User: What shape does this take?
Amino acid sequence: MERRETDVKETENRSTGKLSNPQNTIQVIQKHGFAFQKKFGQNFLIDAHVLDKIIAAAGVTADDMVLEIGPGIGTMTQYLAERARQVTAVEIDTNLIPILKETLSDYDNVTVINEDILKVDIKKLAEEYNAGKPIKVVANLPYYITTPIIMGLFESGVPIDNITVMVQKEVADRMQVGPGSKDYGALSLAVQYYAEPYIVANVPPNCFIPRPNVGSAVIRLTRHQTPPVEVKDRELMFKLIRASFNQRRKTLLNGLNNSPELSFGKEQIAAAIEQLGVPAAVRGEALTLEQFARLSDLLGESR
Ligand code: SAM
Assistant: This one.
């Protein structure tokens, strides 16, 4: 049954020139003499089921503006354009721009911007294309800059509904876990401060051309309306988090005391840890987001 559905879908894709069909992708690449650039993290999706899952998880509707990061040859962009009101796609590789012009020629609701996403004023794009209302971000991310892209989106005050992205499996796990897991770290806490993470699907290497040498996963990060914890000085809390995990094997006390980013005295830190009600030799990796927020307030007050 499953197999027959796949066959039907593939026939449909081939006839409509959809790039989720691997032959169509290869044809486009050959026609344009496109050479994959490793430095841009180029692994193009060639699996219609995975694309359907990403779009469904993002909950794209006809009212939405979607920001796509790294459209590649436009495989996911075609899917997005059929469902969203507006798709704005930011692609760094100039060699892909003529290809996108061709593969997206049927859609009048797509804008392609040839830029580095880390240099784009996304807030301005949301204002221009969505009257400042929350946007959806959907992407098969270039893995070499996953963290700066996601943290940049959260920290720059761009109005966001959700970010639904393909990332390295290991990174998706790190975003989702809590204390007690070896994967728990600064990324878990930062992501969970801003959003509710949910792993939608694991995706094997054979769903991409060329195949990446790591497993991948689709994760949806639903932006919190209000942060799950209250903290007086958010920057201080994130400095504490970074300091604790930079020296993971050290106690929280030593980690914070050794950090060049912080200037609290050892006794001051010890007193705050005691007030927090955790053991003096606790490690940072045992603390919840709530405890980091409280520790930040305690240390902030003691300044
Ligand atoms: N969306 C396409 C797909 O799913 O088939 C391509 C995904 S591929 C994993 C990542 C894409 O991001 C590539 O097209 C790459 O050129 C682009 N890219 C890499 N770094 C970028 C950056 N700094 N800004 C914008 N796009 C970037």
In short: The chain has 13 helices and nine strands. The mean pLDDT is 94.
